[in-house]
Design a protein that fits this description.
Blueprint lengths: L5 E7 L2 H10 L7 E7 L17 E9 L8 H16 L4 E4 L3 E4 L2 E11 L4 E9 L18 H5 L5 H16 L3 H9 L8 E4 L2 E8 L5 E5 L2 E5 L5 E2 L3
Parallel strand pairs: 1-2
Antiparallel strand pairs: 2-3, 3-7, 4-5, 5-6, 6-7, 8-9, 8-12, 9-10, 10-11
Helix pairs in contact: 2-4, 2-5
The structure holds biotin.
Length: 234
């Protein structure tokens, strides 16, 4: 079951770091690490992840017995986060490939999946801005970030968001690839939009069955399976 056992810290370096240590020591599938605050939160592409103490849901989940569906873990998690947000607040979530969760074009949650496939486990880290206000985001991020409180105008207690998220993760992590892909595609924030990546520019045209971003560029159709894409002009 996703959510048990649960290890909670008031302050920790990174819930992903703690969950990785637990996984390496044999913690069972579903083990969850939560924290009110992180001192060394990690984001994708080696970035740091900063969240205001007590106003974001910070958690990491150990998953074991990875099958070939594991390649879609980041996408399945993004779908689960969207579903949890919509269960606790009147919001509509979309996903920016591969797994940023957006509300009205602003990021409300980030996901970092770190794995040791050869040892049969992975850690899914999720940072969801629940009660953060605009003042909690640095100047450069403020125009692009949001929280459930900012988007819905209502405070969602962290524990209520956590309960919803554990439920949706339980359902989506056990889902087959076809259902995950269908749910993800219905929430694609980039489809039809002009995007830029490290060495090119084109129109986002959905995702492949392996989870790669498909783009139509002047030189033809190609698939991006790693790296970052930005909306043009953003
Ligand atoms: C991103 O860059 O969008 C991913 C951010 C992931 C942040 C979460 S917060 C809980 C967990 N612990 C970490 O150190 N990172 C993830």
């Amino acid at each position: 079951m996703i959510g048990a056992p649960r290890v909670h810290h008031s302050t920790v370096d990174s819930t992903n770091e703690r969950a990785r240590a637990l996984a390496a020591a044999g913690a069972p599938h579903g083990t969850v690490v939560t924290a009110l605050e992180q001192t060394a939160g990690r984001g994708r592409h080696g970035r740091t992840w900063v969240a205001p103490a007590g106003r974001a849901l910070l958690l990491s989940v150990v998953v074991r017995d990875l099958t070939e569906e594991a390649a879609l873990l980041p996408l399945a998690t993004a779908v689960a986060v969207c579903e949890a947000c919509e269960a606790v607040a009147p919001v509509a979530c979309a996903i920016k490939w591969p797994n940023d969760v957006w509300i009205e074009g602003r990021k409300v949650a980030g996901i970092l999946v770190e794995g040791r496939p050869q040892e049969g486990w992975a850690v899914i880290g999720i940072g969801l801005n629940t009660e953060a206000g605009p003042e909690d985001f640095p100047d450069d991020l403020r125009p692009f970030a949001t929280s459930l409180l900012m988007a819905a105008g209502m405070a969602v207690p962290g524990e209520a968001a956590l309960a919803a998220l554990l439920r949706s993760l339980e359902a989506r992590l056990g889902d087959d690839s076809a259902s995950v892909l269908e749910a993800w595609r219905a929430r694609d924030a980039l489809e039809g939009r002009t995007v830029r990546w490290s060495d090119g520019e084109g129109t986002a045209a959905g995702i492949s069955d392996g989870g790669a971003l498909v783009v139509e560029a002047a030189e033809g159709r190609r698939e991006l399976d790693a790296g970052e894409v930005h909306l043009l002009g953003v």
